[in-house]
Write a structure and sequence with these properties.
Distance between the termini: 64 Å
Bound molecules: 2-acetamido-2-deoxy-beta-D-glucopyranose
Structural class: mainly beta
Strand order of the largest sheet: 1-3-4-5-6-7-8-9
Order of helices and strands: HEEEEEEEEE
Number of helices: 1
CATH class: Mainly Beta
CATH superfamily: Allene oxide cyclase-like
Largest sheet: 8 strands, antiparallel, barrel
Length: 190
């Protein structure tokens, strides 16, 4: 019996070391220098645009996709979920040059004081930024003069992005709720 156990221990030691050996020879993760990915110097960029959130009319860019039973009796619209594909423009006019789109979701996530959970990607289409994105995940206290939301990442020109976006309401139509919001985004990236 004692012999049996010893054999078993030896066997498992051998077996385990075999696993470790193969893990050594086929690493799935390794460290590398930033230069190996062409990441040389971290930059800080300021990105400025106007976001057009159109909730009414024949071509809304923000659509309500879900509500809770209690959403229509909540002062803050708690539980409403909207999907957006909002144009981003250079100036505040609807006819201004398109720089990209804000695509994602916002939902009313506060029972006291209106505040939205924002989950967006800014997808840029202009010049060298065409195809690059920035990702936002943050709280938007809509009644504040300046709402600040974290930029949690990015792609292409904005790889390794981190920073913040500051939103200021430019105009809002009190009848329809259609809004133009000015954004100043500050990001570190490579
Ligand atoms: C809220 O919506 C429900 C149906 O989803 C309806 O029965 C109810 O009357 C509405 N309440 C108000 C205050 O509009
Ligand atoms: C952006 O890139 C796409 C292809 O990826 C191209 O079709 C489009 O014309 C480009 N837009 C601009 C403004 O350069």
């Amino acid at each position: 019996m004692a012999l049996c156990i010893t054999n078993l221990v030896i066997f498992s030691l051998l077996f385990t070391s075999t696993i470790f050996d193969s893990a050594d020879s086929r690493t799935f993760a390794r460290s590398l220098f930033p230069q190996e990915l062409g990441l040389n110097k971290e930059k800080l960029s300021h990105v400025h645009f106007y976001l057009h959130d159109i909730v009414t009319g024949r071509n809304p860019t923000a659509v309500l996709v879900a509500v809770a039973k209690t959403t229509n009796t909540s002062a803050t619209g708690f539980g409403a979920v909207l999907v957006i594909d909002d144009p981003l423009t250079e100036g505040p006019e609807a006819s201004s040059k398109i720089l990209g789109r804000a695509q994602g979701i916002y939902s009313s996530a506060s029972q006291k004081g209106a505040a939205l959970l924002m989950v967006h990607n800014y997808v840029f289409t202009e010049g060298k930024y065409n195809g690059s994105t920035l990702s936002v995940l943050g709280r938007n206290a809509v009644t504040a003069d300046v709402r600040e939301m974290p930029i949690v990442g990015g792609s292409k020109l904005f790889r390794f992005a981190r920073g913040y976006a500051q939103a200021r309401t430019h105009t809002v139509n009190p009848h329809t709720g259609d809004a133009v919001v000015e954004y100043n985004v500050y990001v570190f990236h490579y």
